[in-house]
Amino acid sequence: MLHVQVGDLLMFGASGGRVLEGGTTVELLGIFLTGVLSDDGRVLSPVGPPTSILFRALQSGQARIEVIRGDPWQAIPQRCEVAIVVAV
Amino acid sequence: MSDSEQKLRQALMRIAEVAQGAVDTGRYTDEDYGKPHAETARHSHNGVGGKNVHCSIKQLPGRLVEKAAKTAMSINPVNRISFGPISAVARGLVLPPAAISVLVNKYWGPQQRQLTVSFLDGGPSDLRRRIIQHMNAWNQTAGVSFVETRGVGKVRISRNQAGYWSYLGTDILHIPSNRPTLNLQGFTMNTDDNEFPRVVRHEAGHTLGFPHEHMREELVALIDPQKAYDFFLRTQGWPREMVDQQVLTPLSQDSIMGTPADQDSIMCYQLPGSITKNGQPIRGGRDINATDYAFAGRIYPKVPAEGAPSIQAEMGLADEWSPSEDVEVDEELVQ
To answer: Which residue range(s) make up the domain with B237?
Structure first.
């Protein structure tokens, strides 16, 4: 169980994820592919599935999220449920 | 063609002129713009005794430019011009030779080369050796090899970030040196033997500049978009935009590997039959196949650089001859 505060951001190294319960308490901000600003000013991203998911604690309460890791194309995804308690 | 497309094409031409001017003279001034290319080139090469004296490129007569480009693409698909996101506008546009110099891709070039490899999170020597051995599977036909360095490698491997991924081709040269260019999440000596060829060789293929084969138009066309949206929402929680990016957006024809679409390529992911229109899965390659090897050897030839003919040494200004002297290229030679 994760204890966080309103406004906290939670980033997981993962290929996917979702909010299972408590969508008004925690929101999924997005599923992202990490990128870097290159030395010539371009934003470069690797070739591959998403690498990061980002949640935000919206208000006090409880939520349950699912974090999905592993190769989306081949293996059975590794799923991990995380309970979150958000305090003011 | 719309006004905006016309303007974009004109802008492209201008960029090409600027770039060619910079290449020819080491600088570019607006005075050069607007002159015919040949005049600009001659002007730029008249600096006899200057610091930038160098060889110049002989140009074919204008009537042969398009024909020569087609021959070049037939011989080596890498010679196809890549326009990236503006390909839709640029397709069909015949650019003067000067334009080619400004359009770059992620190809390492035909010279034989050794890419250094370092491991950001260390790892046992047997594992490091095994990973590099699999990366070097490409070296069976390609003139590119990977070698471990104790310093900071051009290829930097991590195993503690999420997923399997690699930056594409020469993009790795632009990644900050403290960041990985290739990630093999959780790989150890205990990882399944089959995963080494499937994953390590696949990611090394990206480092060589090879994109995903399942993004070829011919294979994307087999996928039912709605089934794909539903499948990846259920299994990964991906929004439609992510599915579009990962699965449904075909590669530009101008930037792809030059073989026919090959779902047994190591660069092709497996996709389930539940998301295809005909119910048949896209098989996906588990190892470098004969087509991959042949293509890699074709664009990264093993011919020693000193043995290759020196085109540069024979370059000069544009030649001209009578059309009656034009040479017909035997199509069999370029197949």
So the answer is: 213-288
pTM over 0.80: no
Instruction: List the single residue in A18, A42, A51 with the smallest CB-CB distance to B163.
Output: A51
**Per CB distance under 8 Å, which residues of A are interface residues toward B?**
12-18, 28, 31, 33-34, 36, 38-40, 42, 44-53, 66, 68-69, 71-74, 77
Would you tell me the crossing angle of helices B37-44 and B3-25 to the nearest 10 degrees? 20
User: Cβ(A84)–Cβ(A25) under 8 Å?
Assistant: yes
What are φ and ψ of residue B237, in 5° steps? 75, 20
Q: Domains (ranges, CATH) in chain A?
A: 2-87 (2.60.40.2020)
Specify the amino acid at residue B46: N
Assess contact for B145 and B204: CB atoms under 8 A. Answer: no
Q: Are residues B194 and B128 in the same domain?
A: yes
Looking only at Cα atoms, what is the longest distance across chain B? Answer: 69
Residues of B whose CB is below 8 A from A40 = 174
Question: If you average pLDDT over residues B206-213, what whole number do you get?
Answer: 86
Give pLDDT tens digits for B119-142: 999 999 999 999 999 999 999 999
- The tokens for A22 are 């408590």
Instruction: Out of A50, A66, A68, name the one closest to residue B242 (CB).
Output: A50
| ipTM of the complex as predicted | 0.91
d(CA B302, CA B335): 20
Residue B130 lies in a domain: yes
